[in-house]
Amino acid sequence: MQARCDLHLHSDASDGSVPPDQLAASLGHVHLAILTDHDTLAGSAAFAKVIDSELPPPDGVELSLRWDGGTFHLLVYGYSLARTELAARIDALAIARRNRNLELLDRANQHGLAITEEEVLAAAGTTDFEAKSVGRPHFARVLVDHGYAESIQDAFDRYLAKGRPLYSPKTLFGFDEIGPLCADLGLVPVVAHPLSLGLPLASLVTTLVGFRRLGLVGLECLYAGYTPDQRAELTQIAQDAGLLVTGGSDYHGTFKPGLEPLMGFGDLVVPAEVGDRLLESLNRP
User: Fold this and answer.
1) Domain 94-160 carries which CATH code?
2) What is the pTM of this model?
3) If you classify domain 5-89+171-283 with CATH, what class do you get?
4) pLDDT tens digit sequence for 158-178
């Protein structure tokens, strides 16, 4: 069987449960796999050192962007991202992230949920809210441990999702800031799980064409959480909008039970040519 790709993976450097080196080792031989932790590049070097891949993996990161209506996550790929202006922008979010986590903790206690900063940090495997990308899944783990929720998903549904009692919005960039920066730096930005934008399919092409003018390169069509029909529809939309087709599992370890790298929920295939085209776009002058 031809080695597959997975262009969307998370480790415990952000809100996954598996260390970057262990995640890379667990994949076996792949065509291309890229670590895309939320708002951090902390695990990239450890992942790249261990991964057994046919193609040299670039760095990757997943950014949450400002968006009205749904949720806008942007995957950005590039070599030596840590030495770019994008990394400086990501670092600037660290203090805002710490303040958000402290606000979330305060809201939990106001709602009678007796969880502590130490417990959340322990769930994230760190000692400082600024040391890594501590996020809502770590709060969810503590809520489950205390019996306030039955599962990670239940904790989100009850407390942590947008509009729920503990939700606190992030400090976010807009695509009008990040897209042109990526274009200037020769990076490849890709809209992650695009149905999360909350747009009707009929208007998605128009929106994506507008993003393309600002530097957007790709669309994550082959996403583990989508049906085969949705993947096919999004592939056609990407082609209509002049965008690269990408894909990945969005693996988070135990924070997303049942989801496996490379295969998603069992039916995901991101073929080798998808990874090839991504690197061709990345290396294009």
Assistant:
1) 1.10.150
2) 0.82
3) alpha beta
4) 999 988 999 887 767 899 999
